[in-house]
Structures are given as structure tokens and as C-alpha cells.
Amino acid sequence: MASSMLETRKYTFTVEGETEMWYLNWLKDMINSEDQRKSNVSIEVKVQQSPIDFVKKITKLSTPKVTHLCDLESNIKEHSDNFKNVLSELKNASKQKNIQYCLGYSNFSFELWIVLHKINCGSVCDRTKYIACINKAYNKKYKNMREYKQESEFKKCLSQLNLSDVKKAIERAEQIMKEKKELDCRKIQYKGFIYYIDNPSITVHLAIKEILADCGLY
After folding, report:
1. Contact predicate 180/86, CB 8 Å
2. Cα Rg for the chain, rounded, in angstroms?
């Protein structure tokens, strides 16, 4: 079926940084270039750390559902409080416009999700240690996270990926969360959201899997 005849499904994300935005834009392009897709996708991404600020500008009619991608960062009080503040904003934002505001979190950072496209990733002691995992997964020699997060370098990593890698990342993320449940790890319930404070844990894959499934690609 010609792409112009396919339904276009719209998804909206708010994200903490540019790497998440670049990834989602890449995902959109990959899906829309897949011959076997059942629909096209439009993914609107806004770099916006405050869900409350974002929701003030939208309506339920135009944007009934939003997913916020964010990082837990660490278990120190400052980062834990910041994360809980985001969850509070998600809850309040949903009430203000009566929309569905979903959470996709990474513990400790979005780099966990990027690594999972290529290899499994166990526990790390802090978010800066993901650079070793990135180098291993993508055969790179980045000295630090700043170097890796340059747009040209990040997109070089994306150029090594395809939708099969995305599906592998989903499977690895699901295995991580399955193990969290089986090991009875420390689960937190706050403002209607559930997350694990033991690294690694992740729910970014839920939104990505939904998009692929909607398009008949999962």
C-alpha cells in the first residue's frame, strides 16, 4: 500500500534532553521507511523538563496522551526528590487537562536504553559509567559522556541501528523488569506511578513497543 494511503498515528513525547529527541526522530524515520508497516507515524517531541509547563499549551482534543521520558539519575536524596517532583507534575498535568500523561523512565539514564539495542547492561555505580557500555556496544572510544552526546557522534551510533535492534532492546528491557519482579527488588509507588530504585530498571520500552505494535511491526 502506498504510504500516502496509510493512516498516520500521532504520538507526543516530552523529554529531558536532545539525545532522546534525536532518537525518537530517528525511530519515526525508520518506521516510516519500513515497507511492512500498517500505518505511518508522526512523533512530536518537545525538550521540556516540566510536564506542567508543556500541558498548559495543549488541549485534550489535539493531544489526548503524552509520554514523558526522564532519568532517575541516582538514589541520592537530591535526585530522588527531583524524580518525585516530576511524577507529581505528571499527575497534576493529567488533572489539569484531563489527558493521559505516561512515564518512561531510565535508571540511571537514557544511555541504558541506547546500550540495550546492542548488548545487555547490568548494574553500574553511577550514570557516567555508561560510557564504557556505549563504547563496547557501538565499538567506540569516547572519553566521556559529553563527547558521545555531540549530535554528530550520537547519530553515528544511531546509524548502526535498525528496527530489529529496537526489538532486541525491548526484549532486554522486559527481561530486566521481569528480574526486578522475581527478585522482589525495592519497588516504589508514588502519585500512581511505579518504579524501581535498584539499577538497572527501565520503562522507556513500553512506549516504543506500543508504537511498533500499533504500526504492525511488533
Report:
1. no
2. 17
Give me the amino acid identity at 21.
M
- Distance (Å) of CA 20 to CA 39, 46, 87, 150, 173: 23, 10, 19, 13, 17
What separation in angstroms does the CA of 41 have from each of 14, 30, 110? Answer: 17, 10, 22
| 195, three cell numbers | 518504579
Region of 216 on the Ramachandran plot (φ > 0 left; ψ -120 to 50 alpha; else beta) = left
> Grid coordinates 536504553 are at which residue?
113
Q: Is 38 helix (H, G, I), strand (E, B) or coil?
A: coil
Give residue-wise pLDDT tens across range 128-141: 999 999 999 999 99
Q: Is 15 helix (H, G, I), strand (E, B) or coil?
A: strand
The reported pTM is 0.95
Dihedral, CA of residue 76, residue 46, residue 206 and residue 162, to nearest 10 = -110
Query: Crossing angle, helix 18-32 and helix 163-182, to 10 degrees?
Result: 120
Cell of 71: 532519568
User: Residue 148: is its pLDDT beyond 60?
Assistant: yes
Q: Report which residue type is found at 47.
A: V
